[in-house]
Amino acid sequence: MCRHLGYLGPPVPLKDLIFDPPHALATQAWAPRDMRGGGTINADGFGVGWWPAGVSAPVRHRGAVPIWTDATLPLLAATTSAGAVLAAVRSATVGMPVVETAAAPFTDGRWLFSHNGVVRGWPSAVAAQARDLPVEDLLTLDAPTDSATLWAMVRVRLRAGEPPAKAVATVVTEVAAAAPGSRLNLLLGDGERLIATTLGHALSVRSLRDSTLISSEPLDPGPAWQPVPDGHLVVATAGQVEITPL
What we know:
It is a single chain. This protein has 246 residues and is of the alpha+beta class. It has helices spanning 15-18, 25-30, 73-79, 127-130, 135-139, 146-159, 164-178, and strands at 2-13, 46-50, 59-63, 81-90, 106-108, 111-118, 183-189, 194-198, 204-207, 212-215, 225-227, 232-237, 240-245. Helix content is 22%, strand content 32%. The strands form 2 sheets. The protein has a 7-stranded antiparallel sheet with strand order 3-2-4-1-10-9-11. A hairpin with a 2-residue loop joins strand 5 and strand 6.
């Protein structure tokens, strides 16, 4: 499995999400609390993406190493602030490559995307859905993984003009039907909104007056955190969250 988070609100240093909280994303990488049998640590890569003020396309920093071994990230996180962030740490499914390009977030245009979970029986289980993808998209996947394939499935719908929440929800429900037992916690952002799902794994939300934080696990013991029930869709902006059944 993996761990991921998304933040919208007033600009904060990246370290306020990745390193400083008592259960920050970097801590979840080596000491997760709720992996639900999907591994023990998240040491197979990481990625951090953020949208600089006034820029529509996000900036991304990824690596194939454990997040705590990257020498660049602590200084980058201490000196970079953003009001929109999406980050993840990876626990690779057995048999899938451990390379930088397999680490979320994946990106295209203004979008960032992450998947926490596994597609059971990949790739054959979703071969029928993949046949509907443009050949060029299949040939240019970031990596031969279930997560990159899910991103291709979401992205083709976004490019066709489908509303983001519908695109994410449709992919989750179709893949869940084709590959029963899959864990499909998806997280999509464009710098102004976050779309997330829960299917087979944990997710929590903290919504304050002017900010929203979505995370696989709460970053701190504060009372504002709300667990998202399994089988639900989250649509969020800064300070507003809507949670509905998939």
